[in-house]
């Protein structure tokens, strides 16, 4: 699989990343099962066979059990640690986590960021994270605290690079005024069903009332060399719920001799911003179907066919 270099870093990552959101099984406090560990090992090994070397985690995924699965796999196969770029996200506090309790909230305080990293490192059984992203913007954020956390984590060798997730251009700018490290990624929901980040530019000067809130974010990230990572790039398997879109995806998949997943992901990969889809799956077969996207080069006509089918209307 072809690779991207994350701007302002020395990280060479595959065009697709592998997400771990459901790897721990149910979102409860039951112990991690042997089945979950076996499945995680199979996925990590299959990912490398497909050329995928980027693993995306979050401290909240299945209440930390997804981290534990990765840690148990590394206990069995310690050689896999250096084979993957490990990316962690922190900052969401789940209401159902008894360690915190309700309400569900965000916490980008110094103490929370540092403790989340320390706990994640222990669960994953590694000495450092290659990249740490702030999972959601915190309305009570004190940027100076974030900067201090980043400095201490970087100085201690616990985190090499930093980024954000679900942040606006203004929120990134606020952080950039305080942190010394470059913010190198922004993980955002992008798919054929959630195409606003890409399509909002089409509505400039159209006089419509449906200008989405993401206006300018894509161009901001490109201008400031922030890699966009697409979470839920297959819309949770809901692409077929739109008959026109599902039919167009299927037809193009048949024409290119690849899976429907590959076409949906290739639509993102075709964009010149260098978007990196994060594929969250617990199926080795589906992971391999997704990896076919790297071999697909959609034409401009095909790309706009998919956009039109998704929007349900021609471009203005």
Keywords:
single chain; alpha/beta; TIM Barrel; 38% helix; 316 residues; 11 helices; 16% strand; eight-stranded parallel β-barrel; two-stranded antiparallel ribbon
The number of E-state strands comes to 12
Helix/strand-derived class? alpha/beta
| Percent of residues in β-strands | 15-25%
Q: How are strands sequenced across the largest beta sheet?
A: 3-4-5-8-9-10-11-12
* Number of helical elements: 11
What form results from the Cα inertia axes?
globular
User: Which stretches are poorly predicted, pLDDT < 50 over at least 5 residues?
Assistant: none
Helix amount: 25-40%
Work out the radius of gyration: 19 Å
CATH topology type: TIM Barrel
Main pleated sheet: 8 strands, parallel, barrel
**CATH architectural grouping:** Alpha-Beta Barrel
What is the distance, rounded to the nearest whole angstrom, between the alpha carbons of the first and last residues?
36 Å
CATH superfamily: NADP-dependent oxidoreductase domain
CATH class: Alpha Beta
Number of domains: 1
Helix-strand string? EEEHEHEEEHEHEHEHHEHHEHH
């Amino acid at each position: 699989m072809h690779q991207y270099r994350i701007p302002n870093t020395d990280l060479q990552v595959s065009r697709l990343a592998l997400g771990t959101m459901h790897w721990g099984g149910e979102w409860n406090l039951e112990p991690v099962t042997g089945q979950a560990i076996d499945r995680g090992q199979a996925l990590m090994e299959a990912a490398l066979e497909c050329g995928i070397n980027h693993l995306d985690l979050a401290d909240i995924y299945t209440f930390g059990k997804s981290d534990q699965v990765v840690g148990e796999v590394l206990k069995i196969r310690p050689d896999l640690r250096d084979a993957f770029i490990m990316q962690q996200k922190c900052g969401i506090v789940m209401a159902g986590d008894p360690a915190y309790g309700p309400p569900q909230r965000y916490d980008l305080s110094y103490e929370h960021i540092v403790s989340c990293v320390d706990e994640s490192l222990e669960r994953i059984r590694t000495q450092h994270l290659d990249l740490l992203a702030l999972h959601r913007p915190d309305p009570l954020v004190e940027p100076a605290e974030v900067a201090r956390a980043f400095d201490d984590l970087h100085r201690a060798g616990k985190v090499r690079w930093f980024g954000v997730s679900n942040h606006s251009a203004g929120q990134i700018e606020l952080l950039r005024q305080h942190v010394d490290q470059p913010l190198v990624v922004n993980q955002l929901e992008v798919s054929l069903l959630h195409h606003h980040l890409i399509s909002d530019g089409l509505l400039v000067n159209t006089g419509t009332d449906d200008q989405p809130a993401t206006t300018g974010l894509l161009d901001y990230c490109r201008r400031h060399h922030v890699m966009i990572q697409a979470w839920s790039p297959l819309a949770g398997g809901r692409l077929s719920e739109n008959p026109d879109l599902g039919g167009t995806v299927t037809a193009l998949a048949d024409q290119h001799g690849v899976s429907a997943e590959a076409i949906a992901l290739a639509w993102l990969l075709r964009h010149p911003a260098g978007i990196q889809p994060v594929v969250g799956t617990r199926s080795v077969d589906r992971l391999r179907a997704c990896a076919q996207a790297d071999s697909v080069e959609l034409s401009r006509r095909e790309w706009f066919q998919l956009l039109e089918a998704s929007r349900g209307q021609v471009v203005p």
